[in-house]
Amino acid sequence: MTALRTSSTVAVVGTGTMGQGIAQVALVAGHRVRLYDTAPGRAEGAAGAIVQRLDRLVEKGRISADDRDAARERLSPAAALTELADTALVIEAILEQLPAKQELFAALEDVVSDGCLLATNTSSLSVTAVAGRLRRPGRCVGLHFFNPAPLLPLVEVVSGFATDEAAATTAYDTAAAWGKKPVRCADTPGFLVNRIARPFYAEALRAYEERVADPATIDAVLREGTGFRMGPFELTDLIGQDVNEAVTQSVWRAFFQDPKFTPSLAQRRLVESGLHGRKAGRGWFDYSEGARKPAPQTEEPRPAPEEVVLHAQLPGPAAVLRELMEEAGVKVTRDRAPGESEGFIGLPGGACLVLTNGHPATGRAYGRCIRFDLSLDYRAATRVALAASRTCSAADVAEAVGLFQALGKQVSVVEDVPGMIVARTIAMIIDFAVDAAARGVATPEDIDTAMRLGVNYPGGPLEWIERLGAHWVRDLLDSMHRHHAGGRYEPSWALRRRADIEELVL
Question: Which of 120, 245, 261, 449 is buried most deeply by CB count within 10 Å?
């Protein structure tokens, strides 16, 4: 293992929230830590704030008073960059502006030893570009912590084009020694989490723009329907609409305006209006005192059908619905042997329930068709979205609603669009993840780890594709691509290849 010894000194440049958090992590791990900031008095104030947080850890029994006192002795502010001359690692956490980071590292290179590792905590800028003005760019590596750094375990270790393998390994091992879960990543726009997570926000915004449902309902369907910790609208309000949109814009530009990364006009208007989320008192939702968050659209109780007909086996995770219906006391009869055609549920009135597959409900050969949205775990899900074709009657929709309510689900009826809400989101996240793995951005294991720990996904996208099948994801995106020309939903070559191999094996 090549982790830095605790006897070595770590410096943190930039003493905002993230810089203080990183400094606390290194300090608690046993290092001497020096804080530097160009603003007079900022480093001293940051040191005091860190000590106060250590005091709270003592009060909570997380660390001992002796450990707190020892850490306090190891922490010191620096008045000038020259005071960082003996450090073994410098981590910058200054503003997200490339010229500022380049200037800082060029200045540091004149101060620190040749063996000192230079790390940037950038979340969206190119590590290669940050190191571009260094005489020895091989010593520069990305160490992207997630906020709050003392609490969140994930650290993305990003190798720029010129980063030495030894530097990346030392950074990785040091992060692990600090109690973090590091993942390796190539220098790609957005790295891992901010690249692969884009569809979680983008598809919700696109669904809103298509008037599929209101923000509270879209959030609830994703949160309660498949286990995301927060919905995309409430999450971007928490992150800050301006911050989230800036990352989206940065990644889009870095990918040469690839349509898969296209930003949202609705979010742009929100940012232009100054509605930046919680910090502004209002974003998608109102956070002023006494304001109530809008409730998701939820159907009133309907009677459950006494009997349904199951035509073939439902695909993927939806197969468990047969068990759930029988457990709920709904009689399920079979019409055909499994595997003869796409499975669907026949309702007593003649309409059919079909898992969304990228086609809208309207225009299907089934006639009176009601699509139900994807869930990764229908047994655990507490909400499901339905979308009815134009030929369905109110009685047809009531039967579908009553059936899912009998299974213990709340039901939201949304507009009929390709991919609905969950399915389009999951499929796009999977496509981004498969593409990133195929391009060598990171290993499949690190991709799944990053998405679970970095953004609290209910599993990794490369785990999801095993459950759904690559051919199902490809077909859904192909269908959406036919309905939405322009390239946004065109499956990646890596997904197509994986689906082809899967079908050959089957």
Answer: 120
